[in-house]
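[step 3/7] inverse_fold.run input=structure_tokens len=392
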């Protein structure tokens, strides 16, 4: 394909993955996670397939490229590094943009079976490969690779740009509950997924459900795909499979009602958690029932809802979802708060006639479908705690 043809391809709508595979990794991928690294190599064509490493986002692109190359080579891939990165020694943003228009690098993309985008800052990926919202020939070649059945993989920042709407910054998810996002925090990605989907990474570990909810409500996108660390979503023909250490959390905001935007008050969010090996249809926004898990009975209607004192903590949301799906009262309540602030947020998880849950070999194995979430602001007593005195 010529550079002129690639330029014309840049005008086609995003989200056309054709027969290819997206491997959306949540970041912090361990060297020994064979399932994830092998998934990239297999989707690229198996041992001997050419996989390109694109360290554009990294602040240390040489180091990031070397580490990624080593893992892919160990799984049998032929690996080449494309040094298209503003932080590459001797390079700059202007030079990296020139490389993204270079016919030699485009030709390598045309010959490859896959490409792997490392982590870092998603702004660098956008500034180099899609400046001013228009594809460079290198990004157009990446789309063509996907369309002909190859694989596009990305971790951390490389995962964030998979969707048309990309989250930038906002490291404290509590801020997303207090206020709308600024223009600098809500940006544009590559649009490799269906246009209704927004991706987020480092998801359960960093409690990022709150910021994904805000992005969905503010951007008008219907579905959020949260990928946990050392885990991935393998997306083929619009269906995401959970692979790796943990699962995927889906937030469907299509039926939600926002009562207030600052601070946030929203009712009717729909949450699903897809455990390892299970699948979710991103286009139709529905979970595909697991074939190897046992359908669980809902908990008794009577009983007190479970309570979680830090709902934004590491993996707490999934525990609250499981408690609501199969515990007494069929509900769970969590609190999002910050010490010294009078504003907090109550998160209420509850079941309805659409909620279903499946269990696996251990108590930690759950796939949960269509759990309701309502979020409302609350006022906290101050101080929340103080020294205990035995005479009081």
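[step 3/7] decode complete -> sequence:
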């Amino acid at each position: 394909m010529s550079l002129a043809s690639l330029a014309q391809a840049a005008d086609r709508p995003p989200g056309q993955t054709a027969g290819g595979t997206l491997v959306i990794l949540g970041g912090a991928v361990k060297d020994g996670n064979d399932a994830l690294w092998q998934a990239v190599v297999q989707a690229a064509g198996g041992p001997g397939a050419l996989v390109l490493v694109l360290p554009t986002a990294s602040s240390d692109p040489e180091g990031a490229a070397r580490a990624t190359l080593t893992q892919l080579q160990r799984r049998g891939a032929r690996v080449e590094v494309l040094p298209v990165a503003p932080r590459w020694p001797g390079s700059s943003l202007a030079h990296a943009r020139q490389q993204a228009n270079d016919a030699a690098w485009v030709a390598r993309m045309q010959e490859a079976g896959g490409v792997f985008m490392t982590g870092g800052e998603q702004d660098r990926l956008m500034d180099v490969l899609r400046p001013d919202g228009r594809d460079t020939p290198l990004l157009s070649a990446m789309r063509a690779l996907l369309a002909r059945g190859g694989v596009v993989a990305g971790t951390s920042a490389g995962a964030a740009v998979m969707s048309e709407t990309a989250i930038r910054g906002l490291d404290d998810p509590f801020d997303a509950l207090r206020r709308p996002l600024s223009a600098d925090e809500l940006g544009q990605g590559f649009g490799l997924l269906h246009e209704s989907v927004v991706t987020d990474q480092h998801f359960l570990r960093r409690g990022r459900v709150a910021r994904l909810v805000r992005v969905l409500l503010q951007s008008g996108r219907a579905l959020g795909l949260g990928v946990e660390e050392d885990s991935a979503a393998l997306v083929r023909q619009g269906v995401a499979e959970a692979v790796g250490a943990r699962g995927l959390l889906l937030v469907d905001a299509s039926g939600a009602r926002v009562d207030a935007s600052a601070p946030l008050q929203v009712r009717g969010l729909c949450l699903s958690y897809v455990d390892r090996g299970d699948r979710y249809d991103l286009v139709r926004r529905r979970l595909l029932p697991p074939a190897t898990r046992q359908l669980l009975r809902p908990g008794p209607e009577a009983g007190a809802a479970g309570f979680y004192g830090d709902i934004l903590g590491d993996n707490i949301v999934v525990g609250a979802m499981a408690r609501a799906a199969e515990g007494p009262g069929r509900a769970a309540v969590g609190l999002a708060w910050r010490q010294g602030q009078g504003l907090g947020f109550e998160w209420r998880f509850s079941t309805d006639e659409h909620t279903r849950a499946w269990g696996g070999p251990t108590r930690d194995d759950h796939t949960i479908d269509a759990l309701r979430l309502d979020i409302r602001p609350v006022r906290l007593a101050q101080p929340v705690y103080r020294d205990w005195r035995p005479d009081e």
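[step 4/7] annotate
The CA atoms of residues 86 and 179 lie 33 Å apart.
The longest strand covers residues 366-379.
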